[in-house]
Amino acid sequence: MEAEGRHVDGLINNAGYSLTGGFLSLSPAQHAGMLAVMATAPVALSRRVAPGMAQRRFGRILNVASLAGFLPATGGDTLYGPLKSFLIKASQGLHLELKRTGVHVTVLCPGYTLTEFHDANGSRDAVSRAYPRWMWMDAEPVIRAGYEACEANRPVVIPGAFNRFMSIAARVTPTGWALKMADKHARRLQRLPQTGGGGPNLPA
């Protein structure tokens, strides 16, 4: 892009999804695809545009992570939280590296947000039954929070008072308790595979 004379002043890494069928029930190719979209792609895209931004001393990079990045990983959706944790840490490091170059790097960490995300992974009904409407945010205030934080060059933004409370609670809760709560969360959402007597069907 830069070699062709086209400049990118803003990058939003928002691509992502979750696979709730259980770690053992998913194929290695499915795992690799998730890693590529949610870890490799944001790093590669940021690396491609950041040098030109720094040279021009102007640029905006907004990475969309999740409140899940601060919480224990959920059984049945094993990779999602850890990948968001990676994106949070990588964004913070890039923020520190570029903050004196005129390039703003922010990571947005929303909680439950009313989008098509849960429709895509087939969990809309289960999630809606498990968690009341007041725990959800509309998309517009989440987008606005991300935009304003990136313009202000804040490294991390967690929209919503409840979500900010949860992120703090997750940091001070003993690991054993946190894992028990994560286990209850996964069972409430019916994300843990039922193995029965013969175990899950394992893809090649």
What is the number of helical segments per DSSP (H or I, 4+ residues)?
A: 7
Radius of gyration: 18 Å
What's the pLDDT, averaged over the residues?
A: 87
As a percent range, the share of helical residues equals 40-55%
**What's the end-to-end separation, in Å?**
39 Å
Note the run of SSEs as H and E: EHEHEHHHEHH
Query: Any low-confidence stretches, pLDDT <50, length ≥5?
Result: 193-199
Please tally the β strands and state the result: 4
With strands numbered from the N-terminus, the spatial order across the biggest sheet is 1-2-3-4
Shape assignment: globular
Strand content: 5-15%
Main beta-sheet strand count, sense and barrel state: 4 strands, parallel
* SS-based class: alpha/beta
Task: Describe what is shown at a glance.
The protein has 204 residues and is α/β, with parallel strands linked by helices. Helix content is 48%, strand content 9%. The radius of gyration is 18 Å and the shape is globular.
Question: How would you sum up this structure, described in words?
Answer:
By secondary structure, the protein is an alpha/beta fold. It contains seven helices and four strands, in the order E-H-E-H-E-H-H-H-E-H-H. The protein has a four-stranded parallel β-sheet with strand order 1-2-3-4. The longest helix has 29 residues, at 28-56.
